[in-house]
């Protein structure tokens, strides 16, 4: 059994399973979420519920965050009754996707309180969070990496990206752009083939045996599109947020993103039509409507 209590803030679709894995590993947790019901499964397993991020950060020297948007991360870290107000915390690990700008801002704000930010966004979806097979990208001062490595290994495979705040965020945004781009262009290719008369399963098998295979053709289409469920587990609003952040970051660096901008636009349409809580595989639903065809097994 681990001696020190860890803090965990944000117990949603990703945070809940990750916090549960820490309990599985023997860690004692102090947890907080704005939704009290999200805390109950962990409290039932021995976690202590806290009324605010500040209370968590006054209980644990290391506090993890898994939060949905950059403004929420900033508020939880630096706002009133936030982590920076805690009396015990020395290390804050952010598992969220915020973009490098917010990561740098939060790192500076926490440093004023002698708290070190470990930027550690994750990729691999809810299934990866439950199974402990996430990719965990990490940027932080190297001595802190050694300290947090045993904690983060509970979530999956670690990749140290460097010491500069936000480097891990940049890696995460690059990955999520590619994931969304694969979803968009696979939807177009599949709709074209099905409307021409191809069986969608046969076409998908061909793509997956050929050079066009990608994460969408291999995983998302069989699970969430051909079945008509559109329930892969990643919200359209979050994907749209990530791609916007990526294109904005590329622009600030002077890197052209012609294709990335088109992917952002597809997600904007999907977000407007089906709502931010829809699954991001709903990109295929937009293409289906425009093409006048259903892609089903």
Short recap of the structure:
By secondary structure, the protein is an alpha/beta fold.
Helix and strand layout, with pairings?
Blueprint: E1 5-9, H1 15-24, E2 28-32, H2 36-43, E3 48-49, H3 53-57, E4 62-65, H4 70-78, E5 91-94, H5 100-111, E6 116-119, E7 122-123, H6 125-131, E8 134-139, H7 142-152, E9 156-162, H8 167-196, H9 200-208, H10 215-225, H11 236-253, H12 258-274, H13 283-291
Parallel strand pairs: 1-2, 1-4, 2-3, 4-5, 5-6, 8-9
Antiparallel strand pairs: 7-8
Report on the structure:
There is one protein chain. The protein is elongated. The chain has helices at 15-24, 36-43, 53-57, 70-78, 100-111, 125-131, 142-152, 167-196, 200-208, 215-225, 236-253, 258-274, 283-291; strands spanning 5-9, 28-32, 48-49, 62-65, 91-94, 116-119, 122-123, 134-139, 156-162. The model has no long low-confidence stretch (mean pLDDT 96). The strands form two sheets. The chain has a six-stranded parallel beta sheet, sandwiched between helices. A three-stranded mixed beta sheet has the order 7-8-9. Helix content is 53%, strand content 13%. Strand 8, helix 7 and strand 9 (156-162) form a beta-alpha-beta unit. Helix 11 (236-253) runs antiparallel to helix 12 (258-274). The protein starts with a strand and ends in a 6-residue tail after the last helix. It is an alpha/beta fold and 297 residues long. The chain has two domains: 5-165, Rossmann fold (3-Layer(aba) Sandwich); 172-291, N-(1-d-carboxylethyl)-l-norvaline Dehydrogenase, domain 2, CATH 1.10.1040.10. It is built from 13 helices and nine strands.
């Amino acid at each position: 059994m681990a001696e020190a209590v860890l803090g965990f803030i944000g117990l949603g679709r990703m945070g809940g399973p990750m916090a549960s894995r820490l309990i599985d590993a023997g860690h004692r947790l102090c947890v907080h979420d704005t939704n009290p019901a999200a805390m109950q499964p962990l409290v039932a397993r021995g976690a202590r519920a806290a009324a605010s991020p500040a209370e968590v950060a006054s209980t644990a020297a290391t506090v993890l965050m898994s939060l949905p948007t950059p403004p929420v991360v900033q508020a939880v870290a630096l706002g009133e009754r936030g982590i920076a107000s805690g009396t015990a915390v020395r290390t804050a690990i952010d598992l969220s996707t915020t973009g490098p700008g917010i990561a740098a801002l939060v790192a500076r704000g926490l440093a004023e309180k002698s708290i070190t930010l470990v930027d550690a966004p994750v990729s691999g979806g809810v299934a990866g969070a439950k199974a402990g097979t996430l990719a965990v990208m990490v940027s932080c001062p190297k001595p802190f990496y050694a300290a947090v490595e045993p904690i983060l290994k509970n979530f999956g495979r670690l990749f140290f990206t460097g010491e500069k705040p936000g480097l891990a965020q940049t890696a995460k945004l690059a990955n999520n752009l590619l994931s969304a781009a694969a979803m968009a262009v696979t939807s177009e290719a599949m709709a074209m083939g099905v409307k021409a008369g191809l069986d969608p399963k046969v076409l998908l098998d061909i793509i997956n045996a050929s050079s066009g295979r990608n994460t969408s053709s291999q995983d998302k289409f069989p699970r969430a599109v051909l079945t008509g469920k559109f329930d892969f587990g990643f919200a359209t609003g979050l994907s749209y947020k990530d791609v916007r952040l990526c294109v904005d970051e590329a622009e600030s660096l002077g890197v052209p993103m012609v294709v990335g901008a088109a992917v952002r636009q597809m997600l904007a349409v999907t977000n407007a039509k089906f709502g931010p809580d829809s699954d991001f595989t709903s990109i295929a639903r937009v293409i289906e409507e425009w093409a006048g065809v259903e892609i089903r097994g």
